[in-house]
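Teaching assistant here, posting this on the class forum so everyone can see the example we discussed in section. The complex has two components, and the goal was to see what a joint structure prediction looks like when all of them are supplied at once.
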Amino acid sequence: MFMKAAWLTVSLAFWGLILSLIIGFFCALVRFWRWPVVARLAGIYIELARNTPLMIQLFFLYYGLPRVGLLLEGRTCAIVGLAFLGGGYMAEAFRGGFSAISRSQIEAGLSIGLRRFQLLRYVIFPQAVAVALPAITATAIFLIKETSVFSIVALPDLMYVAKDLLKEGHNNESNLLLVLSYLLIILPVSLFFGRLEKRVRFAGFGD
Amino acid sequence: MLDSAIEIFTAGRNTARLFEGLAITLKISAAAVGLSILLGIPAGLLMSSKKRFWRVSLKLYLEFIRIMPILVLLFLFYYSLSSVFNINLPAVTVSILVFTLWGTAEMADLVRGAVTSLPRHQWESGRALGLSELQLNLFVIVPQAVRRLLPGVINLTTRMIKTTPFVFFINIPDLVKVAQQIVEVTGIRNPLASVWVYGVIFFIYFAICYPISLFSRFLEKAWQN
């Protein structure tokens, strides 16, 4: 039972993370390029996502939206909610990376005739990711921890199972399992990103 | 559409109860932030000191707290404290305790970051000028450290406010719990209740956290050099 719940937590966290990385990257990108209207919208989205709790976002998605005709099932809600929240945080993380790229890098890229996509792919992206990695790590771990509220949209995740066991009176066993499960999920992620950070530390160029 | 909203927020004591819930939310966050600052500063100074024992044990503590979801900590302290140690604390106390444990760890790390980021020559030139240790700390180190610290502390405050909905799980009647109760009661007659009530608390959180984070960004910019 705990294995199944842990697997659910992991898979939801995985998809939520991937989506928030994508959303965050593009939001940061349109803001970096200052695209007229889109950048403004991205800014509003980032502020909304960063300044409201995930639980309320989920409540709104799961209980509010069906009333106005948009029915999402629990899993979709959880992933959409996590991606909404995470996108805002990841955008801020990437922004730090983008703003660390000096003007001269972009000018040099343009002057050797790179197209916009090539500039992004070979000059901006590698450097931005290297600089933003510590912030991305922190956000990733924060997002995995946030998955602990998914039981409010009726998903049988780790907290849900733990709550069930609590009702049957297995207080300490279930709490111990809970701590162990989260340690097993988050510690490897934390160690993996820690190693990655060490490897890209020398990727910075020109400073 | 709008009628249903007016109906919900004027019916009974709904609006008043939302404010009572908000008061509990704010009380927990304020108490936890205050205690975290008080405990986090000495902890952070110990972490940046040369005392190996303190450095290592605080680091371990910080890593553990960082890895555990706050909700798990709440469960641990609310359900296991009573059955293992026979300590029965009211839910609000438990939540303040857990948020303080977490906040102290984060605060200590912020203080450590602020103190260790000051260049060594600040101490050295202070001594070279003939300042006493007290003067050195009071006029050179503390003002600079506080500047580096404050944006982070404000950030931590908004993070704490955004984490308080978790107390819903240990049955504290905070803003979220009250909202849910209102939806449950009015939802039968008023199908749009969930949209309105959850929408409103979404913006209540935003209205509290957004100005605070703006302030933090303003300070960061104003104090850049």
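For the discussion questions: The interface with chain A takes residues 66-72, 75-76, 79-80, 83-84, 158, 162-166, 168-169, 176, 179-180, 183, 191-195, 198-199, 201-202, 205-206, 209-210, 213 of chain B (CB under 8 Å). The domain at 2-222 of chain B is CATH 1.10.3720.10 (MetI-like fold). Think about how each of these relates to the inputs above.
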